[in-house]
């Protein structure tokens, strides 16, 4: 956990300069072992601590964002139940962000907003001013699942407020 906290702190004063032109999305996956955040050896307290580290990294990036990146969205995405896919990400394209965070329906499945539910409240996560929260639930067809469906939550923290 100390290594994860050091990783989050390494984003203080940092904003990437190496993003190639034309990218719509840039990310940093959570740098932990799978077994720390998923499986029988984890629990909600460990996951909450890891989520806070992702949010802290996000908040550092938000504060370091230069004016030329003003239209980009800095977020931390907490994925449940597949926590290992959680990440800190930059959405460089507003349409791409909206496609991930708005309610939708198609022949492949649907997504809905989870408001007024709050992972920050449930897990006692600390958010600084300007850091919002947006939860979505994905319900998609997945023949590899016993139920034929994949149901998951994505909790977005950071620059998630409507523009």
Structure, explained:
The chain is an alpha+beta fold and 163 residues long. It has a 7-stranded antiparallel sheet with strand order 1-3-2-7-6-5-4. Helix 1 packs parallel to helix 3. The N and C termini lie far apart (35 Å). The mean pLDDT is 95. It holds the Pfam family DUF3916. InterPro entries: DUF3916 (IPR025075). This is DUF3916 domain-containing protein.
Could you give a quick summary of the protein structure above?
The protein is an alpha+beta fold and 163 residues long.
What brief labels describe this structure?
163 residues, 7 strands, single chain
Break the fold down into its secondary structure elements and pairings:
Layout: H1 2-9, E1 25-29, H2 34-37, H3 44-64, E2 73-80, E3 87-91, H4 94-101, E4 104-106, E5 109-113, H5 119-123, E6 132-141, E7 149-158
Antiparallel strand pairs: 1-3, 2-3, 2-7, 4-5, 5-6, 6-7
Using DSSP, what is the number of strands?
A: 7
The number of helical runs is 5
Strand order of the largest sheet: 1-3-2-7-6-5-4
Number of domains: 1
Residue share in helix: 25-40%
Order of helices and strands: HEHHEEHEEHEE
Gap between N and C termini:
35 Å
Shape: globular
Uncertain ranges = none
Rg, rounded, reads 16 Å
What percentage of the residues does DSSP assign to strands (E)? 25-35%
Major sheet attributes:
7 strands, antiparallel
Mean pLDDT: 95
* Secondary structure category: alpha+beta
């Amino acid at each position: 956990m100390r290594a994860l906290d050091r990783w989050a702190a390494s984003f203080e004063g940092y904003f990437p300069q190496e993003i190639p032109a034309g990218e719509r999305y840039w990310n940093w996956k959570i740098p932990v072992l799978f077994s720390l955040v998923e499986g029988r050896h984890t629990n909600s307290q460990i996951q909450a601590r890891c989520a806070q580290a992702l949010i802290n990294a996000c908040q550092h990036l938000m504060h370091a964002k230069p004016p030329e990146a003003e239209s980009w969205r800095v977020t931390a995405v907490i994925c449940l139940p597949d926590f290992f896919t959680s990440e800190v990400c930059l959405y460089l394209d507003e349409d791409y962000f909206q496609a991930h965070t708005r309610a939708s329906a198609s022949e492949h499945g649907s997504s809905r907003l989870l408001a007024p539910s709050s992972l920050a409240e449930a897990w006692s996560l600390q958010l600084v001013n300007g850091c919002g929260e947006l939860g979505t639930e994905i319900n998609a067809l997945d023949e590899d699942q016993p139920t034929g469906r994949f149901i998951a939550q994505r909790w977005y923290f950071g620059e998630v407020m409507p523009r």
